[in-house]
Amino acid sequence: MRIAMLAPISWRTPPRHYGPWELVTSLLTEALVRRGLDVTLFATRDSLTAGKLAGPCPAPYSEDPGIDAKAWEMLHVAHVFERAGEFDLIHNQADFVPLAFSRLVQKPLVTTIHGFSSERILPVFKAYQDHVHYVAISTADRHPDLRYAATIHHGIRLEDFPFDAAGGEDLLFFGRIHPDKGAAEAIAAARLAGRRLLMAGIVQDQGYYDEQVAPALEGRSVVYRGPLGGVARTSALGAARALLHLVNFGEPFGLSVVEALACGTPVIASNRGSMPELIEHGVTGFLVDSVEAAVEAIGRIGDIDRAACRASVAARFTVERMADRYLDLYRSLLG
Q1: Count of other CB atoms within 10 angstroms of residue 91
Q2: At residue 316, does pLDDT exceed 90?
Q3: Can you tell me the distance from the alpha carbon of 131 to that of 60, in angstroms, rounded to the nearest whole number?
Q4: Helix (H) or strand (E) holding 35
Q5: Mean pLDDT of 290-314
Q6: pLDDT digits over 218-260, tens only?
Q7: What is the pLDDT of residue 10?
Q8: Average pLDDT of 303-313?
Q9: Is 193 within 8 Å of 293 (Cβ atoms)?
Q10: What are phi and psi of 244, to 5 degrees?
Q11: pLDDT confidence of residue 21
């Protein structure tokens, strides 16, 4: 089976620190290569893969200001479809632009929808749903106006996330510094609970950071460590008493939630979006509807068995399980 895997070009595949779409694309690509599939990863030219690497874009546009996002995205997507005859199937992980090319080739196109940035992009997905096979990353993120071929949760390499049976005393916020991700709510909950909060992630909204986060850093109760990757990332996830994921939107999935659970760290999350699919209330964490409820959950976090958190990921959210589900879909489409 010859697969063209189309990654986004906002970040390197796999990302150096932030880049959830690129991370999932890399995890799936490498898992398919390990299974013996002939996979060509179309990504930025500084990307890393055990498969074949292709693509015209020299660097990620979110890291190199000399890369124009629109211009290079067009070149990147066109390059894949110009080579469509070399593959049995194209798997698009790069949002809606590739859909416009789908009727120009005879190969099946699988598109993993990593969420909807706006309802305004929905007409593109609707226009091609009779021709493209959509995959939702959670049941919660399935749009009622679209048809889907499957729902496939993301998976991670469990061995990349060491289990920490004890954890630590500090709480953790791990995500984009943006109103959607609930940084201000995490700060408020930690303060009311009387615990120190470590924060990690890229600043996506500078004004929000300046207004909601920076003032909290003046004392010792909140520490911002910037974007973390590698060992620093897994150490932070494992050493936390709990991950605070008090998001203000219907999050399509939430990789940091699964990564924290894999390390044994319980998660206190807003009861919305995909969170009820990832967290078993009272077993691997708590689903809450307010900052006050989050504070109460922090007081009960000792009731959670950290081994149960890791076991839930081993059973449901491994890269092997994800790859098996995608392989089943590929085979069904190719007959």
Answers
A1: 27
A2: yes
A3: 29
A4: none
A5: 98
A6: 888 999 999 988 899 999 999 999 999 999 999 999 999 999 9
A7: 97
A8: 98
A9: no
A10: -95, 115
A11: 96
Q: The pTM is what?
A: 0.93
Strands (E) located in 184-329 = 197-200, 222-224, 242-245, 267-270, 285-288
Q: Which domains does the chain have, with CATH numbers?
A: 2-155+318-334 (3.40.50.2000), 158-316 (3.40.50.2000)
User: CA-based angle 163:169:174, to the nearest 5?
Assistant: 65
Per-residue pLDDT, 17: 86
Question: Who contacts 197 (Cβ-Cβ below 8 Å, separation ≥6)?
Answer: 170, 171, 172, 173, 186, 187, 190, 191, 221, 222, 223, 244
Strands (E), 164-221: 171-174, 197-200
Per the CB < 8 A criterion, the answer to whether 172 and 224 are in contact is no
CB–CB of 193/299 below 8 Å? yes
Cis? peptide before 14, omega within 30° of 0: yes
Q: What is the DSSP letter of 132?
A: S
Alpha-carbon span 134 to 283, nearest angstrom: 32
Contact criterion met (CB below 8 Å) for 6 and 42: yes
User: How does residue 55 score in pLDDT terms, banded at 50, 70 and 90?
Assistant: very high
Nearest to 212 by CA among 248, 236, 188: 188
Spatial contact of 69 and 61, defined as CB atoms under 8 Å apart: yes
pLDDT of residue 230: 86
Q: What is the mean pLDDT of residues 2-6?
A: 98
Give yes or no for a contact between 190 and 221, defined as CB atoms under 8 angstroms apart: yes
Query: If DSSP codes are grouped into helix, strand and coil, which group holds residue 182?
Result: coil
Q: How far apart are CA 175 and CA 236, in angstroms?
A: 12
